[in-house]
Amino acid sequence: MNQLGFPLVTLLIAVPFVAGLVVWFSPRQAYGLHRGIASIAAIANVVLAIIGLVSMAPVAGYQFVDSAAWFPAIGLKYAVGLDGINIWMVIIATLVMPLALFAARTQTQERQRGFYALLMMLSASTIGAFVAIDLLLFYVFFELTLVPTAMLIAMYGVGERKAAAIKFFVYPFVGSIFLLVSIAGLVILTWQQTGVWSFDSVALAGALNSGAVVLDEQVMHLLFAGFFIAFAIKTPIWPFHTWMPQAQAATPDHGAVDIAGLLLKVGAFGFIRFAIPFFPQAMSWAAPAVGILAVISIIYAGIVAFGQHDMKVLLSYATISHLGFVILGIFSQTVEGISGALLTMINSGLTTGALFVIVGILARNPGGRNPNNFSGVWASAPKFGTLALVIVFASIGVPGLNGFIGEFLSLQGAWLAPHLGFGYISGAVLGIVVSAAYLLRMFRTVFMGAVSTTSPVAEASKSELAVLGVLVIAMVVIGLYPQLILQSMQPSITALVSGISQP
Amino acid sequence: MLPTIFYIGLSALLFVIGVCGVLMRRSALMVFMSVELMLNSANLALVTFANQWKSLDAQVMVFFVITIAAAEVAVGLALLVMIFMRKQTTNIDSMTTLKG
Amino acid sequence: MTQLAWLLVLIPAFPLAGFLLNAFFLRGERATGIVASLSIVASFVTTLVAVTNLAATPEEARYISAHLWDWLAIGKVNVSVGLWFDPLTAVMTLLITGVGALIHIYSISYMHGDSRPHRYFAYLNLFVFAMLILVMSDNLFLLFLGWEGVGLCSFLLIGHYFERDSVAPGIVPSEASAKAFVANRVGDAGLLLAMMAIVSNFGTLSFFGADGNSGFISRLTDASFITVDLGLFGSIGLVSGIAMLMILGVAGKSAQLPLYTWLPDAMAGPTPVSALIHAATMVTAGVYLIVRMHVAFDLAPDAAGVVTVIGAATALIGATAAITQFDIKRVLAYSTISQLGFMVAAAGMGAYTAAIFHLLTHGLFKALLFLGSGAIIHGMHDIQDMRRMGGLRTHMPTVYRVYLIGALALAGIFPLAGFWSKDEILVHAWYGAQNVNVTVMLIFASWLTAFYMGRQMALTFAGSTRDHDVHPHEQLGTMKWPLYILAVASALGGIINLPGIHWLTDWLSPVLHHEAELFTWSMGIFAAIVVISAGAIGYLGYRLYSGELLTQIKAGEEDPAHYYLGDIWKGFEMGWGLDYVYQRLLVRPYRTFSQFLSDVFDRQAIDGILVEGSAGLVGKVSQAASRAQNGNVRTYALVFLIGVVIIVGYVVIGA
C-alpha cells in the first residue's frame, strides 16, 4: 500500500474498467444509464488523477506503487505507479474522456451501450499502459488498447470501417510482436547474467545502467530494434504511419473515438519510459537515422495535410507532424528535449482534441467533413469561429499559446544533443511554416469567405462553446505559464537523463 | 505354443492390410473397418508380448484399446450415418470440405 | 518590484485591458471605440511618465526593468517574462502609443457603420499590446511572442472583411491574410533558429540580464571567433550565422527582399490598419530587431553587408513599383516597402540612429498619408482607383493640405521631417560607409519617391473629376484631429535630430554608443543637391500627370508611360513579378505536390507497396502452403504414414 492509504493507481485503471463492464451488462434500453455511468466514471477518474498530482512528492522515482505477485516463478508482478513523467499523461488521458463523452452526445441511443462500454475499456487500457512498471504488464495493456479501438471503428465507424479496423489492429499488432521478443530477450539475458527473473522495468534499467548486466553491442542494437519497431509503428513515425489516417477517416463523425484515442501516444511514451533507460547508447546510435525520419514526418505529414479533403484526415496528419517533434525531442535525450516531447504530447491531446470537437460540430451540417463545402462560418457563427481561431493558432504554434513551448523545447533539445544538432533543426523548422499553411488553409476555407448558402452553419450551442472555452483557457495558461506542468516533470526527467550519462 | 515371431508377423500383416485399406478404399465404411483392423492388429501384438513377458500391463492396455475402439465405432458410425444422410454417399473422395 | 517597474507594466497593461473589455464585454460601436482609444491614450501618457523617469536615471545605467514571472526554466532554457525600458524602447514605445492613439481615434469615425466594430477595436488593441511587448521585452523569447503576436493581429485585421470575396484592387481578404501570415512565418523560422543558436551557445535569451550586463549581447564579442561547421556548405562564424538567421526574420516582418510580396496584398485590411500596422509600427519591427541586436551586426560585417544590399535593393524595387500603381493604397504600400529598405540599408551600414530616426519620421508621415488616403477613400465612397479620382483639391481642401505635407515629407523636401531623416541616411551612405553603389541606389530610390508622390498628388488632387458617377465629399468628423496632429508632426518631426542639435542621437547613445557626427559644409551641399534634384523630379512627376498625360488617364486603361516603357513598366507594376514567380514556382507546385503525396504517394507507394505489399506477400506464401490442404482424407493419411515411416526409420537406424 502507498502513502495515500488506498490503491490510487489501481483505481485509475479499475474505475473505467468496472464501469465498462457494468455498462456492457446493463439493459440495452437503459440509455440514460449508459451515459450516466460512463460520465461518472470519467469524472471520478479525473478526480483521482488530480489527487495523484496534488499529493505527489517532487522527487524522482515511482510513487503510490501498487504491487502484487502475478507469476512469481518468473518474477512477473502486477506493479503500477506514478511519477513525474506519466502523471501528466494520466491527467490528460483522464481529462480527454469527459471531452470524448461530450463529443459522443450525438451518438444514436440504440447503439450506445457497446459504444460507451468500449470507450471505457479504451480509457482503462490507455491508463494501464501509462502506469505499468512491469514490462509484461505494460505489454499487455499496450496490446489491449488495440482491441476496444478497433472494435469501435469496426462497429460504429463510417466508410471503409472494417478494412480500416483490421489495418488498425493488425499493423501495430505485428509491430508489437517484436517488442515481445525483445522483452523476452532482455529478461532472459538478465537472468543469465544475474540469476534473477524480473520484468520490473526499474530493476532492469538499474541492472543495465550499473553494469550488472552487460549487453553485447550487436545484441543491444537488436533488442532496441524490437522496441523501436513496435513503438515507431504505434507512434507513428513516417513511413509507418498509414494506418492512422485510414483509421481516422473511418471513425464516427462526432469525433469521440478520435479524442479518446488521442492520448494513445503509448508508442512515444514507450520510448521515454523504456527505450531511454534500457538502451541509451543504442538510442544515441540510432538517433541520426531516426532524426531524419522524424524530420521527414514533420514536413511530409504537413505537406500531405495541405492536400486533404477530409478535415479528420487532415488532423490525423497534423498529429503525425506533431509527433515528429516529439520523436526529435525524445531522441535528443536531453532534459529540454524530453520535457518538450512530453509537453507536445499533452498539447496535442488538448489542441487536437479541441479541433476534433470543432470538426464534430461542423460535420453535423450537410457539408460533412470536407472543408470545401463550408464557407463564412465565422460570420454566421462568430463565437464558434473565434474559439476555432484561437485553437487553430495554438496548433500552429504561436507563442503565448501552448503549442509553441513544446515545439521549441523539443527542437532546442535536439539542437543541444550531440548526435542530432542544428542540421536536423533547420529541416524541422520548416514544419512551422507548413503547419501554418495547412491549418490556415482549412481555417480560411471553412471560416472565412462569404457565408455559404448551401451549408450555413448555425452558432454552436452554449455547452459546446463552454467546453471549447475551457480548452482555450487551458491553452493560454499552459502557453504563458508552462512551468505549471514542466516543474513537476523536472525531477523525474533529470533522473532519467542523468541515468544516461552514467557509465 | 507357436514362437512369438509368428504372432508378430500376423499382427504386422493385419496392420499392413489395414493401412492399405485406409489408403485405397473409397468407401468410408471400409476405411473405418480398416482402422478397426489396425487397432486389432495392435491388440494382437500387445497380447503376444504380454504372453512373452508374463506381464499383465499390456493386457490392461488391450482393454483400453477395445473400449476406445467401441466408443470410436459408436461415434464414427453415427457420423457416417449423418454424412450419408447429407450427401447420399460414403465415398471419402467426395468429402473435401477442408480443402484450403 | 519598484514603483517604476509597475509603471512599465502599466504601459502594455492598458491595451491588454482594452482588448479584454472589447473582446468580452463591450458591443456598442461607440463604447468600443472610446474604450479602445482611451486605453491607448492612457498607455501613451504612462509612457511619457516613464520616459521622464528614464531621463532622470544616470546615463551609464539608463534602463528600467521589470521581472514579472519565470516563463520557462528547463535545463539550459531559462526564460522570464520581463520588461526592459531603455532609450531605444522609449522612442519605439512613444511612436507606437502616440501614433496608435491617433489612429484609434481616427478609426472611431472611419469604422462607423462597420458590422463588427468590437472585433476591430479588440484586434487593434491586441496589436498595440503585442507590439509593445515586442519592443519592451527584455529577452528574445518574449520578443518572439510579440513578433508572432503582431503577425497574428495583422492576419486578423487584414482579414477583417473576411466575408467579402474581393476588395479593391481585386484582393481576396482571406487569401491576403493567410499569405501575410505564412510569409511572416518563413521569416519567423529564421528568427526561431537564431534563438535556438543563442540558447545553445550562450545559455540565455536575455538581452542584458538582470544587471544590464549579463545577457547574451555582451557575450557576443567573446564568441566572435567561434565558427560553425556547416558540412557541405563550408563554415560560418557563429555571430554571422545568428545575424544571417535574423535577417530572414527581418525580411519577413519588414517586408524586405525576398519576402516583401505580402505587404501590397495586406492593403485588403481597413485603411487605419494599413496606417498603423503596415506602415508605422509592425513592419518596422525588423529594423528595431537589427538595432537591438546591433552588436551582432557590428561583429558580423558579412551579415551587415547582406542587410545593406537587401535594404538598398528593396528600396529601389519598392520605389519602381510605386511609380506604376493606380490603387491609392498600393502606391503607399510599395512606398512603405521602399522606405523600409532605406531603414534596413541604414541599419546595415551601421547608421542605427539614422535608421531609427527615419523609422520615427516615416511612422509619422506615412501614417498621415494612409489616414489621408483613408479620408479620400471615405469621401470617394470606397473608390481606391486613382484613375477615377482627380480634382479632389476642390472637393477635399483639408485633406489636400495635410496630404501635401505628408507627400512632401515623404519625398524628402526641405524642411519637412522626411528630409532630415532620409538625408541623414544618404549622408551616412556617402560619407560614413562610403558605399558608392548603395548611395546611388538610395538616391535613385529617393528621386523615384519624389516622382511617385508627385504623380499621386497630380492624379488625385489636380485637374477635375474623371469619374462623374461619384460625388466626392469631405466629411471628416473626428478624423480631422489625428490628421492635423500628424501633419504638424510630419512637418516639424525633423527637429528631434537636426544636425547640430541631435537630440535623438544623444538620447540613444546609452544604447547605441554613437556620437553625433560633425556637420560639414560638404554634407550640406550634398544634401542640397539631393533635395533640389528630388524636388525637381517630384515637380516633374506632378507636371507630367497633371498636364500632358492627364488626358490619357482613363479608368481601366494603362498608364500612358506604359506606351513608352512597355513590359518594363508592366514588370514594375507587378512588383518585379516576384509574386507571380512565387505563385508559379512555389505555391502551385506545392499544391500539386501535396495532392500527389496524399493521393498517390502516400496511398500507393507507402501504404500500397510497403504496407499492403508486405501483408500481401505473407498472404501469397500462405496461399501456396494451403494448396497442400486438399481436403482428401486419404492424402492426409498417406502423408501421415510417410511421416511415421520417416520418424520410426530415424529412430531405428539412428539409434
User: Biggest interface between protein chains, with counts per chain?
Assistant: A-C, 64 and 58 residues
Q: Specify the oligomeric state.
A: heterotrimer
Number of strands of chain B: 0
Low-confidence stretches of chain A: none
Major sheet strand order of chain A: 1-2
Q: Kindly state the mean pLDDT of chain A as a whole number? A: 87
Radius of gyration of chain A: 22 Å
- Helix-and-strand structural type of chain B: mainly alpha
Which stretches of chain B of 5+ consecutive residues score pLDDT under 50?
none
How helical, in percent, are the residues of chain B? over 70%
Verbal overview:
- The complex is a heterotrimer of chains A (503), B (100) and C (655).
- With 503 residues, chain A is mainly α.
- Chain A has 22 helices and two strands.
- Chain A has a two-stranded antiparallel ribbon.
- In chain A, a hairpin with a 4-residue loop joins strand 1 and strand 2 (76-82).
- The model of chain A has no long low-confidence stretch (mean pLDDT 87).
- Chain B has helices at residues 4-24, 28-53, 57-87.
- The model of chain B has no long low-confidence stretch (mean pLDDT 87).
- Chain C is globular and about 120 Å long.
- The model of chain C has no long low-confidence stretch (mean pLDDT 86).
- Chain C has 26 helices and four strands.
- Chains in contact: A-C, B-C.
- Chain B binds chain C through residues 19, 22-24, 31, 92-93, 95-100, and chain C through 626-634, 637-638, 641.
Task: Briefly summarize what is shown.
The complex is a heterotrimer of chains A (503), B (100) and C (655). By secondary structure, chain A is mainly alpha-helical. Chain A has helices spanning 8-25, 31-54, 86-103, 112-131, 135-144, 146-156, 161-194, 201-210, 217-234, 243-250, 256-262, 266-278, 280-306, 311-332, 335-363, 377-380, 382-396, 402-416, 422-428, 430-447, 462-480, 483-501; strands at 63-71, 76-82.
